[in-house]
TrEMBL record:
Pfam short name (any one): Glyco_hydro_1
Known EC number: 3.2.1.86
Keywords: Glycosidase, Hydrolase
Family: Belongs to the glycosyl hydrolase 1 family.
Glycosyltransferase recorded as keyword: no
Gene3D superfamilies reported for this sequence: Glycosidases
Active site, per annotation: 364
Gene Ontology terms describing biological process: carbohydrate catabolic process
InterPro entries reported for this sequence: GH, GH_1_N_CS, Glyco_hydro_1, Glyco_hydro_1_AS
GO MF term set: 6-phospho-beta-glucosidase activity
Name the record gives this protein: 6-phospho-beta-glucosidase
KW RNA-binding (keyword) present: no
């Protein structure tokens, strides 16, 4: 079995990290627009509003709003078959609860999609990628509130109808499982826990609202255009038991529960035994309205999109907790202390396909590193070529040897953008260097890195080039 001639090679970005165009043409504030820059030692701050004389990386990103034609031409030069991007919710509905959309925002994405299609690049659109309208957070409590389903559906209905002949591939929420994995699920669900709040119940209820919204979006999208392919998207935390101690195998299962929880509902259409076990483990309360279970059953996704960056080792502790921060002695680390594990991608692909038996799409994979721009405008990022080459080789093995159905592969941050986790620019992922620093200074000029020409060959040969 070989990689399909229709395999979707490309790259991935998110509006809040890349687009910029802060408040341009009527855009409203999203949750990203009040999050400051930071770094690995100084976490990003989240403000209630935009403070003067404060740097918010999302306001400019790396300038796609003004450079989209130039950037798409560069993607076409590499031979992209697809480009994963997100629509910024607040560009379409500035507050989020309006009845009518912002026409200027809709027109911008018309122009972007037309430019992509001019080069025969398939848009792959994430509907909600860390860009929840700030107004919905303040007025309604974000996804705690069931009213969010209606606001989300109005947004989906608008973009599905507007772009039904331009976009085929959609994903409902980015890394939806991170709602359950964070102390404060701000990026995923627009939630900062309040003092005394029942966190478990909040997470379960917000997740349920998002899952119902996802199912309803799938149903609606297929009604508007039966050719739509609508998927989910999760962060896949590949993990290994730390030892052959049986309890460590149980620890791996429990560590993966927060991922399988969402996938089981979105792919199988119900809360499975895995989901019920996680609910009991959390100890919160969940309210399921009449008709919700039927919606979940009917609104299962067409494919699984997932991000893969690293693996972890997990072990049971004496107090009954799970430790997933151990050092794997067989793997090297990135500059940000992530395990480099190409074969883990093959393991992940097999685990997901064996469990769900629907097409998979690797929509994020990449290496964050400090790149040096040389005086002649070049960047020698051989380390990125080595990293991606080994991961693509593992991808090929999963397809060609294991017969896993994979429809595409998009590297994360195909052009340099702001890190969502740390708010840095120096943590670069792209094939294209963008002149901007951690303080927001720079010309935004674009430069092709060494990896740019390498990835072009990968696509030209449909992944059959040597990874050297």
């Amino acid at each position: 079995m070989k990689i399909s001639d229709h395999f979707l090679w490309g790259g991935a970005t998110a509006a809040n990290q890349y687009e910029g165009g802060y408040l341009a043409d009527g855009k409203g504030l999203s949750i990203a627009d009040v999050e400051t820059g930071g770094n690995i030692d100084h976490p990003r701050e989240i403000h209630e509003s935009v403070h003067p004389h404060t740097y918010y990386p999302s306001h400019e990103g790396t300038g796609f709003y003004d450079h989209y034609k130039e950037d798409i031409a560069l993607f076409a030069e590499m031979g992209f078959k697809c480009f994963r991007m997100s629509i910024n919710w607040t560009r379409i509905f500035p507050l989020g609860d309006e009845e009518k959309p912002n026409e200027a925002g809709l027109k911008f994405y018309d122009q972007v999609f037309d430019e992509l299609l001019k080069y025969h690049i398939e848009p792959v659109v994430t509907i909600s990628h860390y860009e929840t309208p700030l107004h919905l957070v303040k007025k309604y409590g974000s996804w705690r509130n069931r009213k969010m389903i209606d606001f989300y559906m109005n947004y989906c209905r608008t973009i599905f109808k507007r772009y039904k002949d331009k976009v085929k591939y959609w994903m409902t929420f980015n890394e939806i499982n991170e709602t359950m994995n964070k102390k404060n699920p701000y990026h995923q669900a627009g939630i900062l826990f309040q003092e005394g709040e029942d966190k478990a119940s909040t997470v379960l209820q917000a997740s349920h609202h998002m899952l119902v919204a996802s199912a309803k979006a799938v149903i609606l999208g297929h009604q508007i255009n039966p050719n739509f392919k609508i998927g989910c998207m999760v962060q896949y935390p590949e993990s290994y038991p730390a030892t052959c101690q049986p309890l460590d195998q149980i620890a791996k299962r429990e560590y993966m529960l927060f991922t399988h929880y969402y996938l089981d509902v979105m792919c199988r259409g119900l809360y499975t035994n895995t989901c019920l076990a996680k609910q009991e483990q959390l100890g919160g309360k969940l309210i399921i309205n009449d008709g919700d279970e039927e919606l979940l059953r009917k609104g299962t996704v067409d494919f699984i999109g997932f991000s893969y960056y690293f693996s972890s080792i997990v072990s049971y502790q004496r107090d009954g907790s799970i430790n997933a921060k151990g050092r794997n002695p067989y793997l090297e680390l990135t500059d940000w202390h992530w395990h480099i594990d190409p074969l883990g991608l093959r393991v992940a692909l097999n685990e997901l396909y064996d469990r769900y038996q629907i097409p998979l799409f690797v929509v994020e994979n990449g290496l964050g590193a400090v790149d040096q721009l040389n005086e002649d405008g070049t960047v020698d990022d051989q380390y990125r070529i080595d990293f991606l080459g080994k991961h693509i080789e593992a991808l090929k093995q999963a397809i060609e040897i294991d017969h896993v159905d994979v429809i595409g592969y998009t590297t994360w941050g195909c052009i340099d953008l702001v890190s969502a986790g740390t708010g840095e620019m120096k943590k670069r992922y792209g094939f294209i260097y963008v002149d901007k620093d951690d303080q927001g200074n720079g010309s935004l000029k674009r430069y092709r890195k060494k990896s740019f020409y390498w990835y072009k060959k990968v696509i030209e040969t449909n992944g059959q080039t040597k990874f050297e």
